[in-house]
Amino acid sequence: MIKISLxxxxxxxxxxxxxxxxxxxxxxxxxxxxxxxxxRYELNAAMVTxxxxxxxxxxxxxxxxxxxxxxxxxxxKVRTADLTLFFDxxxxxxxxxxxxxxxxxxxxxxxxxxxxxxxxxxxCPVCGADLNEEECDCVIEPPEEKDSxxxxxxxxxxxxxx
Length: 162
Ligand SMILES: [Zn+2]
Ligand SMILES: [Zn+2]
Prior knowledge:
The protein contains four helices and eight strands.
């Protein structure tokens, strides 16, 4: 839980640093993709007109398998954007729980696809060669063209009548 005591915040700005275990994100770990480092946060909180302002960032790391070439990927760093979170309607609240806000920001920052490298060439779909390591002579036919030749309705599809 990431909480800020509002009575303390009333008196002075608060620096909030710490970490939560990977489970904090509630991401089901798989062999392909799992959160492999604590979620660390460095936040500054202050009272401002109309509410509380929290700024800073959070970071973690993910591991798993490259989605293109199946090589292991270890501890790829993940960092949120610089966050500016504003909380109004805090009257009568003792503690501001910002766990959900930080969780969703870190989830947003997680890569959709884990890659060993942005430019990973992946595996050849025909022979399985690792195209980062070697070139192969396979001819990969673009499936779309083939479809329109063999399918009598191909021309209709192109007119978007389906
Ligand atoms: Zn790769
Ligand atoms: Zn090949």
